Amino acid sequence: MNATPHWLDPEQKAAWDSFIRMQETLIGRLSRRLQADSRMSAADFVVLAGLTESEGGRMRFLDLTKRVEWEKSRMSHQIGRMAKRGLVTREECPDDGRGAYIVVTPEGYRAIEEAAPLHVEHVRRLFVEAITQEELDTLGRISARVLAHMERQPD
Questions:
Q1: φ and ψ at 90, to 5 degrees?
Q2: Average pLDDT for 33-59
Q3: What percentage of residues in the chain have a pLDDT greater than 90?
Q4: Most buried by CB count within 10 Å: which residue of 29, 38, 118, 124?
Q5: Predicted local confidence at residue 147, as pLDDT
Q6: Three-state SS for 7?
Q7: In which order are the strands placed within the sheet that holds 58-60?
């Protein structure tokens, strides 16, 4: 027997719809600019950003997958495409025969170093400049709170 759905009230629905539309529009515009500016996909960028921000430009495959919240198959295909273009390499994990490290290559570093300054300017123009510092601080606290809440919830 299904319980009656607990629908969002009008204010909750309006806030949720506005948040989703803002997020999808922002990500879409940033992705298109990234592609136009650097010929790099948003997926390439998120993987390279994660790797270059990690110790030694390397992460275990599963840690990288968890960091970007992707399925293993999606990450595997993405890494395969990026490896063919020389942006990353896969190295066997010496202490775990089934595990692997994903390592950014010099070409990958060059690509992210060229793309990041333009990307951050678009983030600033489209997002940061649209709100006050106080609103940005509030959004940061709200985002951290929602993320912490989700960590406590079953997937």
A1: -110, 130
A2: 96
A3: 91
A4: 38
A5: 95
A6: coil
A7: 58-60, 96-104, 88-93
> How far apart are alpha carbons 100 and 62 in whole angstroms?
8
Q: CB of 48 within 8 A of CB of 112?
A: yes
Half-sphere exposure of 117 (CA within 13 A, CB side): 3
Can you read off the two tokens belonging to residue 103? 């390592």
More confident residue, 2 or 67: 67
- Integer Cα distance of 85 and 49 in angstroms: 16
Q: How far apart are CA 14 and CA 17, in angstroms?
A: 5
Nearest to residue 112, comparing CAs of 55, 32, 37, 27?
Answer: 37
Q: Where are the domains of the chain?
A: 39-151
Token couple for 32:
């298109």
Q: Which is it for the CA torsion 103, 108, 114, 119, positive or negative?
A: negative
Question: Tokens 């020389």 label which residue?
Answer: 86
CATH 1.25.40.10 correct for 39-151: no
**How much is the pLDDT for 99?**
81
